[in-house]
Amino acid sequence: MKRTCTVLLALSLLLAMAVSGTxxxxxxxxxxVREGGGSLHIRAEESTSSKSLGYVYHNDEIVILRLGxxxxxxxxxxxxxxxxxxxKYITSIRTQAPEAGNTVxxxxxxxxxxxxxxxxxxxxDLDGDGVNEYVSSIINADEYGVEYSSLSIENDLGSSVIYPxxxxxxxxxxCFVSNPTGGAYILISGDEASCDYFTLCLSYNGKQxxxxxxxxxxxxxxxxxxxxxxxxxDNGVITLSGSRDMLGTWYAAYPYIIENGxxxxxxxxxxRVEVDISDSEIWEYxxxxxxxxxxAIVYGKLExxxxxxxxxxxxxxxxxxxxxxxxxxxxxxxxxxxFDSNDWSFSISGINEADAFTELxxxx
Length: 364
Description:
Mean pLDDT: 85
Strand content: over 45%
Number of helices: 3
Low-confidence stretches: 1-23
Shape: elongated
Largest sheet: 12 strands, mixed
Helix content: under 10%
Number of strands: 32
Radius of gyration: 26 Å
Structural class: mainly beta
C-alpha cells in the first residue's frame, strides 16, 4: 500500500510537470513488474485486449512518450519497441532536458519535431527495420584550426557510415522527421561560410546515407542543398530561415515540406521577414526611410508614400517582384519592384533603390 501511494503521488506530480514542462524535456522511467522479475506485454493500444507488440521486462529503462493516469505510451531503447503499458508498472519517473554529451532518444513525427544541435548523440530508427541507429558527430579541423562537423551513423551490427559536411561545427542543427515508408529523414543545416546557411535532407538505407533532392528552392539552383537553416517544424511544414536580399538584406523564412522523398519548397508562399515591429530599436536601426515619394499599393489602390516615411519589410515573393511593408504609423502596403541581376539591385517604378531610400542595409 505504501508503494502504491508513493507511485500515485509521484505520478500526479509528474503529470503536472508534463503539462508545464518544455517539449524538449525527455521523461524516463524504470519498469517495475514484481520483486524477482517478470515481463509485461507492450500493447498497440491502451487495452489489455489490444495486439501485443512484444515485451518489456522488470528493471528495463524506458522513455515515456505520453504519461497517463491508467496507461502510458513508452519507448524501449534496448529493443526499439514503442507501445502502451499500464502506468502503475512505471517507477523512478524523471524528466531531463537534452544537455551536451547526453544521448537523446528520438521518436520522429510527421507533424512536428524538436530541433537539436550536435552536442548530443541520438538513437533513432533511421531505416525502418525496427532497430535503432546511433547518430553522433565527428569534429574535424582544417589547416587553419577551423572546426567542421561530420555525421556518424552506427547500426546495431557495429558498422558505421561517416558523412562529411562543410558546416562550421558550432552552427549545425538537425531534426528527425518520420518517413511514411518507414524510418526517418535527417534534416541537417549549418553555416558553410560567412552566414551562408544551407539544409540537407538525408536518408539511411542500412548501409549508407543518401542525399535527397531539393525541389523548387526559391532564388537557388542546386540539387541537394536548400537555402537557409532549420528554424521550425510544425504540422508537417519545415521552416528554413536565412539572409535574403530585397531592398537591403533581411533575415527571412520560407516554408518547405518533404514530398515524395524530396525537400520541396511550398509553391505560392512568401518569404516572411523575421523582425519584431513592436521593438522601437528595430525602427531606429533597421527601418528604411523614403528619400522621395514612392508609388505603392495600399489596400488594393495605387497610392504614394511620401518622402521621410520610415517602413520595414514584412514579406516578399520568391520571384522578387513584390515587397510588402508596414510603416511606422501602421500603414500596410506593397511595392512593385524589379530586380536587375546584372548589378544586383532593385528598383521601384524605375527608381533605383539607392535613390528611393536614404540608406540601405545590405550584408557583406
